[in-house]
Write a structure and sequence with these properties.
Order of helices and strands of chain B: EEEEEEEEEEE
Distance between the termini of chain A: 35 Å
Number of helices of chain A: 0
Helix content of chain B: under 10%
Helix content of chain A: under 10%
Strand content of chain B: over 45%
Number of strands of chain B: 11
Largest interface: A-B, 23 and 20 residues
Shape of chain A: globular
Number of strands of chain A: 11
Radius of gyration of chain A: 13 Å
Mean pLDDT of chain A: 96
Largest sheet of chain A: 7 strands, mixed
Structural class of chain A: mainly beta
Order of helices and strands of chain A: EEEEEEEEEEE
Shape of chain B: globular
Mean pLDDT of chain B: 96
Oligomer: heterodimer
Structural class of chain B: mainly beta
Number of helices of chain B: 0
Chain lengths: 107, 117
C-alpha cells in the first residue's frame, strides 16, 4: 500500500495570503496525484489531477506541482470560500490511497 | 452536469449488512468510467472502498474485499454498495463517486451510516 503523508495538519492563513500544502508518497507515483477540497455537507470537489492539471472550472489561484514522491498544492490568494480541508490522493495503482488531510483555517 | 445522490439506512446493527444505493443523473453509467465508493469515519480521513466498470472489471480495497460487493444497475442508472458483518469501525460518511484513470471527478455529498445496536 502506498502511504500518503500530508503536512501540515492545520494551516492558519489570512485571506489574501498564499497557502502551500504538501503531500508525500511512500514510493514513487510518477504524476499520478489528485487534490480534493472537502467542506462539511458538500460533495468533495476535484481540484487538480495529474499533479498539476486544474480540473474544469477550478480557479487559476489553485496550482499543483511535483512528481515522484513530493507534491505541492498552492493557493495563491486565499478567498473566503477556500477555507476547507484538502486531501491528496494517489492513483498509481488500484488501491487508491489518500493523505490524512490539511485543514486550511482563517488566521 | 453529473450528479450522484446516495441513499440508504442511516443506522445498521452490528454484524448486519450495510446496503447503500447511489442514483446517478447527467451521465449513463453504462457509457464508461468506474463507479465506486469512498468513506470517511467521523474525525478521520478518506478511505477508498472500491469501484466497478460497466464492462465488469472491479477493484476493491484489500482490507475490505472479503466483505464488500459493488454492483451497477444500468437500467436504473444506479450504483450499489453492500458491506457485510459491520462493526462500529464501519461507521462513516459514505460517498458515491465516478472514477477515471486520472482522478475521482464527481462525488456525491455522502450519507452517514452509524453502526450501533
Amino acid at each position: 500500500e502506498i502511504v500518503m503523508t500530508q503536512s501540515p495538519g492545520t494551516l492558519s492563513v489570512s485571506p489574501g495570503d498564499r497557502a502551500t500544502l504538501s503531500c508525500r508518497a511512500s514510493q514513487s507515483i510518477s504524476g499520478d496525484l489528485a487534490w480534493y477540497q472537502l467542506k462539511p455537507g458538500q460533495a468533495p470537489r476535484l481540484l487538480i489531477y495529474g499533479a498539476s492539471t486544474r480540473a474544469a472550472g477550478i480557479p487559476a489561484r489553485f496550482s499543483g506541482s511535483g512528481s515522484g514522491t513530493e507534491f505541492t498544492l498552492t493557493i495563491s490568494s486565499l478567498q473566503s470560500e477556500d477555507f476547507a480541508v484538502y486531501y491528496c490522493q494517489q492513483y498509481n495503482n488500484w488501491l487508491r490511497t489518500f493523505g490524512q488531510g490539511t485543514q486550511v483555517e482563517i488566521k | 452536469q453529473v450528479q450522484l445522490q446516495e441513499s440508504g439506512p442511516g443506522l445498521v446493527k452490528p454484524s448486519e449488512t450495510l446496503s447503500l444505493t447511489c442514483a446517478v443523473s447527467g451521465y449513463s453509467i453504462s457509457s464508461g468510467y468506474y463507479w465506486g465508493w469512498i468513506r470517511q469515519p467521523p474525525g478521520k480521513g478518506l478511505e477508498w472502498i472500491g469501484s466497478m466498470h460497466p464492462g465488469g472489471s472491479t477493484h476493491y480495497n484489500p482490507s475490505l474485499k472479503s466483505r464488500v460487493t459493488i454492483s451497477l444497475d444500468t437500467s436504473q442508472n444506479q450504483v450499489s454498495l453492500k458491506l457485510s458483518s459491520v462493526t462500529a469501525a464501519d461507521t462513516a460518511v459514505y460517498h458515491c463517486a465516478r472514477e477515471s484513470f486520472s482522478s475521482t471527478d464527481y462525488w456525491g455529498q455522502g450519507t452517514l451510516v452509524t453502526v450501533s445496536s
